[in-house]
Amino acid sequence: MPVSRTKQVRNLAVGELEMFLTSMSLPSVPHAWMQIYTPTDEVAWSKLRELLAMSVEERQRPWAEHREQVHLVVG
Q1: Which of 9, 60, 75 minimizes the C-alpha distance to 39?
Q2: Under 8 Å between Cβ of 65 and 14
Q3: Phi and psi for 41 in degrees, rounded to 5?
Q4: What are residue 20's phi and psi, to 5 degrees?
Q5: In angstroms, rounded to a whole number, what is the distance separating the alpha carbons of residues 4 and 24?
Q6: pLDDT digits (tens, 9 = 90+) for 2-59
Q7: What letter does residue 30 receive in the DSSP assignment?
Q8: Minimal CA–CA distance to 9: which of 1, 34, 18?
Q9: Structure-model confidence comparison of residues 58 and 68, the more confident one
Q10: What is the spatial distance between Cα 10 and Cα 19, in angstroms, rounded to a whole number?
Q11: Predicted model pTM
Q12: Using an 8 Å Cβ cutoff, are 69 and 63 in contact?
């Protein structure tokens, strides 16, 4: 039987997304399970659409900047 709850997902490119998380086992595969994340409201859907529309470089840029500023990593 699926189990559901809400979860905050933080993404450096678009910020916090509130997601509805559904977890369930896969009876045909021993010890396997699946999780499905679905935005909880229009704000989360909008941020997800914005994230999906970004290029790989645009999605990765905030993480690279964070690493350089916080972790003093160069390159």
Answers
A1: 9
A2: no
A3: -150, 180
A4: -95, 120
A5: 9
A6: 677 999 999 999 999 999 999 999 989 999 999 999 999 999 999 999 999 999 999 9
A7: T
A8: 18
A9: 58
A10: 10
A11: 0.73
A12: no
Q: What are residue 32's phi and psi, to 5 degrees? A: -95, 150
What is the rounded distance in angstroms from the CA atom of residue 50 to the CA atom of residue 59?
10
Q: Which two tokens stand for residue 8?
A: 């905050």
Strand ordering across the sheet containing 15-25 = 3-11, 15-25, 33-39
Only one residue has tokens 């678009």, namely: 14
DSSP three-state, residue 8: strand
Token pair 């997601």 is found at 19
DSSP string, 9-60: EEETTTEEEEEEEEEEE-TTSTT-EEEEEEESSHHHHHHHHHHHHS-HHHHH
